[in-house]
Amino acid sequence: MNIPNFFNTQFVDEKGYLKPEFQNFFQQLITQLQLNLSDEGYRLPQQPTATITKLDNAASTAVILYDSTTDEAKVNIAGTFRVIQVV
Predict the structure, then answer these.
(1) Which residues on neighbouring strands pair with residue 81, listed in sequence order?
(2) How many CB atoms lie within 10 A of CB 76?
(3) Are 58 and 78 in contact (CB under 8 A)?
């Protein structure tokens, strides 16, 4: 999910309407929320195995993602991605 960064600038114009920068900010935020959060559940971010191998370190501890190469959900525990087992 790509959540936009907040920037500190004038929020509305002289007429009280959102400035274009904040119109874009909210549009991007709402689009990301609609794509990744729904009544059906949270969509895990997808990465191919090659990228997951690069992310396999302590900096990614507690990250949950979906391996698009192997069709497996994975979680990084103590610096190592492990397949989430479902029965």
Answers:
(1) 76
(2) 20
(3) yes
The contacts of residue 21 (CB under 8 Å, 6+ apart) are 7, 9
What pLDDT, in 10s, does the model give residues 48-71? Answer: 999 999 999 999 999 999 999 999
pLDDT in tens, 70-79: 999 999 999 9
Tell me the pTM: 0.68
Residue showing tokens 């610096």: 79
| CA 23, chain centre distance (Å) | 20
User: Which one, of 85, 80, 74, 36, lies nearest residue 60 by Cα?
Assistant: 80
Give the DSSP H/E element, type plus range, for residue 51: helix 49-55
In the chain, what are the domain boundaries? Answer: 1-43, 44-83
Query: Alpha-carbon distance 20 to 28, whole Å?
Result: 12
| Alpha-carbon gap, residue 29 to 2, rounded angstroms | 8
